[in-house]
Structure formats: C-alpha cells, structure tokens
Write a structure and sequence with these properties.
Two copies of one chain form a homodimer.
Chain A (H helix, E strand, L loop, with lengths): L5 H19 L4 E2 L1 H8 L3 H10 L10 E2 H12 L5 E6 L3 H10 L6 E8 L8 E2 L2 E5 L3 H8 L1 E6 L6 H11 L3 E4 L12 E4 L2 H19 L1
Parallel strand pairs in A: 3-4, 3-7, 4-6, 7-8, 8-9
Antiparallel strand pairs in A: 1-2, 5-6
Helix pairs in contact in A: 1-4, 2-3, 6-7
The structure holds a DNA duplex.
Chain lengths: ~210, ~210
Amino acid sequence: MKHLPHKTIERLSQYRRALLLCHEKGKSHIYSHEIAKIQHITAVQVRRDLMLIGYTGTLRKGYNVKELIDLIGIIIDSEDGLHVAIIGMGNLGRALINYFAGKRSKLKIVAGFDTNPDKIGNTMSGVPCYSIEDMAKIVLENDIKIGILTVPADHAIATADLLVKAGIKGILNYTPKPVNVPKEVYLEEYDMITTLEKVAFYVKLQEMDEE
Amino acid sequence: MKHLPHKTIERLSQYRRALLLCHEKGKSHIYSHEIAKIQHITAVQVRRDLMLIGYTGTLRKGYNVKELIDLIGIIIDSEDGLHVAIIGMGNLGRALINYFAGKRSKLKIVAGFDTNPDKIGNTMSGVPCYSIEDMAKIVLENDIKIGILTVPADHAIATADLLVKAGIKGILNYTPKPVNVPKEVYLEEYDMITTLEKVAFYVKLQEMDEE
DNA sequence: GTATTTTTGTTAAAAAATTCACATTGTGAA
DNA sequence: TTCACAATGTGAATTTTTTAACAAAAATAC
C-alpha cells in the first residue's frame, strides 16, 4: 500500500466520519455512491481511494461500514493515540477544544498554553491551561506530539520556534503567518483569510458571468 | 487571463498578505524567491502564478511590491467589496470576527447570527448579532453575499438551507458536516478534524520511518 | 568593453489527481 | 433458466498542478 496520495488521506478521514454516523444509525453496508454524495465527490473517487487502501467491498451490497471504519483507523491512526496541545487559548483555541471534547478518538488534546495569567492554572472543557514558558516541560511530561498554533499572528513565529525546541513532531498552524520548521517536523498551515478571499473570488466570478 | 487555477487563487491571496507586510516595512521591490521563501514554495511557482495574472517584473530588480498588491486586488477582490455574515457566534465565529476586525479589506463582516437570546441584540467586536430567524431580512437589507457557517454540527445542514433561501451567494462551511447547496451557490468546506487527523497521520508515518 | 552573475519569463516535461470506460459478477425478475 | 440490472475494481486517458530547463537581458565585476 506504499504511498497514499495526500488527498486520499484527507478523504479517508472524512469517509470515516460519515461512516461513523451511518454506523450509529444501524446501517451495515454502504455504496460508493452514497459516500460520494455525502462528500460531494464522485463514486469512482471513493472506489479508487478504497482500492488504494486495499479494501474490497461486496458486489451489489457495497462496503461493510464497520469493517471500513476499522480499516481506516488502522491506516490513519497511531496505534496508541497521539497527544495534542493547543497553543493560544483564545476563541479559536477554545473552539477547537470544544470540537474535540467528548469525541473518543485516538487524538487527545491534553494541554493548552497561554500567556494570560488569568487563564494559566485553569481548566477549559477539561483541558488544563499552562504557561507558555513551561512548554518544554509539559510537552515532554505528557508526550505531546502535535501542537495547534492559535496564538495571535504576531506571536506565531516565535511560538512555533518554541514548539520545535520543545520537541514537537507536527504543527498545525492556524495563524495567518507562515512559520518555519526543520524538515523533521511536519507542518500544515491553514489560513482562514485566504479561504474567505477565495470564496469571495468565486462569488465575484459567478456574478460577473451572470451579466 | 481566462481561467486561473484554484491553487493560484489561494496563493495570490497569500502573496498579497506577505506583500502588504513588505510594503509596510518600506520595501519597494521583491524577488520571486523571497516571496517563495515566505510561503514555503518554489520561486518558479511564484513566477508562474504571476505570469498567469499577466504581471511582469523587472529583470534583476524583481517585482514592484505596490503594483503587485494592486494587481492582485484587481483580480481577486470585488470592486465594491462584499458583505459577509457569520452564522453561529460561538468561539469559532468570534475568532473569525476578531481576525477581520480592523483589517481594511474589501471583505466586511457586517452581521452575525445566533439563536442564543443573550447574544441577539448585542454587538461583538463591532458586529451586530441578529436572530437566525431574521436571516432573510438582514441578508437582503445588508446585501450580504457570503455566509460563514460556524454553528454546531447538528445545525449545519438546516442552517445552510436557510442561508440558501436567504439568497446568499457563497458559503464557507467550518462545521464538520458537509452541506448541500444548489450549484449557483459557491461552497467551500473546511474541516478542522480532518486536517488534524492528517497531521497525525504524517507524524505517525515519520515516527514509523525512524524505526 | 567584455565577461559573469542573477533574475525573469516560458516552453516543455513530470508528477499528482481525477475521470472515463468497461470488464466482471452477484441479484432479482421474467 | 436466462436476462437485465446495479454495483465493484481497475487500466487507460485526461486534467490539473508542479517542476525542470533554459533563453534573454539587466546589473555588476573586472
């Protein structure tokens, strides 16, 4: 199964989420075109992705929901789970914590960091908030592998450096500032402003076409 | 200049942001490799994107920062700007409002919507919060073109339907639930859980490679 | 004034991602 | 039984995106 395309990885995560819902509803099998419909993609794409992970459905019955959930888990999850920290307990940081709260998943948010003394020492939705100064210690003690960067833009670069020094393995940067990391740290950046500008562009385009 | 690739649109938005910073610092020209460095991409890619929008730099001097900012604006912005609404004034919604607060941009968040009576009628970071029931009216009155969906997952689909009925032209869905819209509405979905799972996957992969 | 360097612009090649097209085969209907 | 249908699985083609390669030309060095 060598190298899965990046896009396939993303879709697998989404398939699993959709499948979990189906499973809860008691659906035991699902067709590729049903999955496709939910995700707004084509059935071929779904089948191709599943082919890449070596999963085989049943002709005329589709895919076994439970089996597929488990297989996707084997592929994308770490066996023992991974610990995650949120750096920056502002609105965005808290939003992320709430997203995850209660989800039994292999990914667990175990710590938050902030500079605000009012937040440090408290717990938010079950996640303890520490001082950024203690990052190296906390990361080590809790075996934290991934950091989600949700600090104000001005602090993004310095904070990313701290994370790297603390020995983090992956960074998800939600600030609008690109950061630099050594190549052994996996970096994913996502910029909400860019996405909104993109939507705006296509809305504009559509309005222009109408004229 | 016909059809710009999707990825190019995204990068243009990012280039502009980087360029604005350079401009503030008084830098008048910039090389393709400087832009590339900031965005973690190659210089060829930058040049290719600029070629696609028909911008020409100066040999040995690079690109004129101000000119390029303006040109990108002409391409991706709507001339008169676009009004945006946030649907769901929770942590994520407020985070987005704060991101945009103070930015003089062609995109303006002019309204927020929520179901919580404590929030309705108040203003958050300058953005008035209305009842979701008044959506159609407010969208029309304020000429709102884009809606950012930040409601709880369970309400995503129903709220998206409301937005469509209200006549919105583009939806940016930040809930983990895919929604359906008619084809004349531009839809962009972004799922934080998927992104985090992707980071986790590549961190796992890296750890496995080390062994 | 000539050579060297550096940077742009672009054609062509490569790589990544998606879609087409269709063989295959269980299933149910006639 | 035989036929038609509906689904999977996948090689081949297509499309999209990125990268390589290099000509052209301005600036600098000598």
